[in-house]
Amino acid sequence: MSDSNNEPRTDGSGPGIVAPDDEVPTWRERKERTTGLSRLTYEYFERARREDQDLRQESSYVERDVLGFPTWPHETIRNIALASFFTGMLLFLAAMLPPHLGDPANPAETPSVILPDWYLYWSFGLLHLDPLNPELAIAGGEKIMSDELYGVLANVVAVGAIAIVPFLNKGSARRPVEEPFWAAVGVGGVVFAFTMSILPIQDMFPWEVAITFDLAFLLPIVSAAITYAVLKTMREGYMYDLNKRYYRLRPPQ
Amino acid sequence: MADEFMKGFAIFTAGLLVWMTFAGWYNTESFYGTQLVGPNPEDPGTYTAMALVVKDAALYFALLGALTFWVLIPAGRRTRSYYASR
């Protein structure tokens, strides 16, 4: 399917803003447009638009190109509907699938697997970086800081890196393909979060622990490189399409 | 196109919600055991048998409905417009 029929041509032909006679909707299209929910939706927004237009014409304020709906009743009804939906969903799930209430914790026994809540797995994994804690020869082969402090400092470094990113790139790109490098950084960061998350449970995999530990640092780099390569390859075609649409140029034959 | 996505998404989520409810009732051994995909209860009563049928129907409704609105209908439209433009 080609979109060339829908795009205005440089010679002035093609569909304009005013519909020619052959583009007047058929009776079937009119019927579809005037039935049921679509009709109701249309009337609702048309009425809101009309009220908005009247208010603008009455007001003495400077005309601005801002489209908005009044808080009462439009936004309020919408918010009540949304809040009712989510409240009902909570009640439904709580009644139909009541949550599991486990046995009380046994203070005399240590569980075999100790994990924080899932959204802290990455941070917990950063506490397991003690193989990276260097044993300095200058300090007589001893570690300059404890493994615990090393893990905490790793958290500080990771959070600091995330906090710096908005100052390095303000994020004006609409799509990842427009900024392949920063998209690659983002993908690498997400993959790094996942690989750090599996670091605390590295004993549970059937291969050697060292392999998991190495993969935890190699996979983010590999995925970032793949992302960069793919997006960089896509970029030329994407920018070409963007420019073509913007300038309404024809592609060179 | 976005409308078709929303229809498929609504069918998908609503169907899976019904399926998850019945699967949580009848196909979950325990919290630490198999959840949602455990074996059906042996010797079900009339109402349980009906619920199991509804559960399977909801699952197929969700999957086939999403497939219809996300794949089949858009593909059919593309095919039709492709042959219309030739």
UniProtKB/TrEMBL annotation, chain A:
Region described as Disordered: 1-32
Keyword Cell membrane: no
Segments of skewed composition (Basic and acidic residues): 1-10
InterPro entries listed in its UniProt record: Cyt_b/b6_C, Cyt_b/b6_C_sf, Cytb/b6-like_sf
GO cellular component: membrane
Parts of the chain that traverse the membrane: 80-97, 149-169, 181-201, 207-231
Residue ranges constituting the Cytochrome b/b6 C-terminal region profile domain according to the UniProt record: 61-180
PROSITE patterns associated with the record: CYTB_CTER
GO terms for MF: electron transfer activity; metal ion binding; oxidoreductase activity
Subcellular localization(s) per the UniProt record: Membrane
Keywords: Electron transport, Heme, Iron, Membrane, Metal-binding, Transmembrane, Transmembrane helix, Transport
Membrane topology: Multi-pass membrane protein
Protein's recorded name: Cytochrome bc complex cytochrome b subunit
Source organism of this protein record: Natronosalvus hydrolyticus
UniProtKB/TrEMBL annotation, chain B:
InterPro entries: DUF7314 (IPR055738)
Transmembrane segments: 47-73
DUF7314 domain span: 1-85
Annotated keywords: Membrane, Transmembrane, Transmembrane helix
Pfam families tied to this protein: DUF7314
Superkingdom of origin: Archaea
This protein's name: DUF7314 domain-containing protein
Record organism: Natronosalvus hydrolyticus
